[in-house]
Amino acid sequence: MLSRARPPAIDVPPKELLHCRRLPARLTVAQVALLLGFLEQEIPVLVKAKLLKYLGRPAPNAHKYFCAAEIEALSKDRAFLDQASRAVATFVQKKNRYSQKPHELTA
To answer: The domain 14-106 is classified under which CATH number: 3.40.50, 1.10.3470, 1.20.5, 3.30.750?
Structure first.
């Protein structure tokens, strides 16, 4: 019978991940967020903006993984970081604009 538990190599504590000599081949959303300097909830925004891509075609409720080599290269790319930061800022602005509209109607 197969266990659903994650392999121990994937559950690297955040502080240890930054000091690893070699990253695991697949990274979780939390690990990608740590390496790129974004919040965990911002990673799906970057995927939707087509700036990041999941490995394989995960089901909506499945664990999402990323290629460590790609993430490491992107973490050193200033143009990517600029574009990703703008994508997150645009998403937050749209979200805030949308959340304010119902309140304006009642005022």
So the answer is: 1.20.5
